[in-house]
Amino acid sequence: MAFASFDSKSSNAPVSEINMVPLIDVMLVLLVIFIVTAPLLSHSVKLDLPKASAQVMSAQAEKINLSIDANGVRYWNGAALSREEAAARFMAEGQKTTQPEIHLRADKTVPYGAVAETLADAAKAGLSKIGFVTDPAPVPTAMPATAQGKQTP
Q1: Which of 34, 40, 98, 108 is the most buried (most CB within 10 A)?
Q2: What is the reported pTM?
Q3: How far apart are CA 66 and CA 32, in angstroms?
Q4: Edge to edge, what strands does the sheet with 101-106 contain?
Q5: What burial letters (b/e) apply to 34-60, b meaning 16+ CB within 10 Å?
Q6: Burial of residue 117 (number of CB atoms within 10 Å: 0-12, 13-18, 19+)
């Protein structure tokens, strides 16, 4: 298995043997890497942990329905009140340990200023769980024949 030869007759012929030395070197390097890293992957400390049971506290957040009609009148769970009364109630709710969820329903014709004032009053009280409630848009039940790709004669 000679790789170099001084014979000029076969010097132009390609070598048809695979050089295995680099492949063996790579395999040995990978084996060393796996031997070194394997103990690091299974490193764990044996502990005898204490047993304890705890009850999950499931404090349900109160839900407040705040509505603003087209005239800008605010309703707290269906009862009409002024902006100052709403701000005072926001302050009282902000002092509680669990924040209530505020579901804000505003008429689409109400001036934006009334909605912005209400949001500002809630933010001053420290309330952050505010959601806007809307009605879903109606979904068409059947599409016309031209919209389905069919042409009418």
Answers
A1: 98
A2: 0.52
A3: 69
A4: 79-81, 74-76, 63-68, 101-106, 130-132
A5: eeeeeeeeeeeeeeeeeeeeeeeeeee
A6: middle
Distance of CA 105 to the CA centre of its chain: 26
Residue 32, both tokens:
């060393």
Q: What ranges make up the beta strands (E) of the chain?
A: 63-68, 74-76, 79-81, 101-106, 130-132
The per-residue pLDDT for range 86-139, each reduced to its tens digit, is 999 999 988 888 888 899 898 888 888 888 999 999 999 888 888 888 888 787
Cβ-based neighbours of 138, under 8 Å, separated by 6 or more: none
Higher pLDDT, 73 or 16: 73
The pLDDT assigned to 43 comes to 64
Helix and strand tally (H, E) in the chain? 3, 5
Q: Which two tokens stand for residue 123?
A: 């933010």
For strands 79-81 and 101-106, give the pairing.
unpaired
Instruction: Write out the two tokens for 30.
Output: 């990978």
The C-alpha angle with vertex 14 and arms to 10 and 18, in degrees rounded to 5, equals 125
Residue 5, pLDDT score? 59
- Give the three-class secondary structure for 82: coil
